[in-house]
Each structure stands twice: as C-alpha cells, then as structure tokens.
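User: Fold this; tokens only.

Assistant: Input:
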Amino acid sequence: MDINEVARTSGVAASALRYYEEKGLIASVGRRGLRRTFEPRVLERLALIALGRAAGFSLEEIARMFAPDGRPKIDRQLLDGCQNFLGCSQAAFTLSDIKHLTQVDL
C-alpha cells in the first residue's frame, strides 16, 4: 500500500505517517516512485497507536509497547497505572478486542 492508500484507509494524515515513521512507530517497506509503501498490517499498528493516544499515552510510551519484531508488547503495570486517564477502561477493553483481531498475546 502506498502512503496515500494508508492515509485514506486509516484516516491518519500522510504527514503524521511520515512523523510516526521518523519516531520508529511504523516502518515503510520501500517506495513506489517517490511515495513510501507499507505492508497492509501497518493498519493494525496504526489502530494500536490511535488507541494508545486515546488512552492518554505519549508516542514515546506507545513506542515502548512494541517488541523489536513489531508485535505488541503491552506492559500490564503501565496499563494498570493509567486508571486516571479518561477512556483508559475503554482502551483496556479495546486492547482485548485487538488481541483477537491480531492474534497476539497482550
């Protein structure tokens, strides 16, 4: 998928995608002309990033929630400690749903 397809499908602006890539949250797999290309599974990762942002986590905290291989690596203590953030309970519920969608152990 090129960056425009990812932006259109995810609702995340292309400039934000480039910023997330710069911060190491997502990775492009190549280029089609001048446009970055991404694997379709980047959409799952963007959903997790959006979920973390909605729960009040910084991008740095969200980045630490991914293992080096790109799979989610959720720190339960960090999640348990976020009870003061608006929407955190909903975020924990949604993480459970994402676990089933991505078939990973959160």
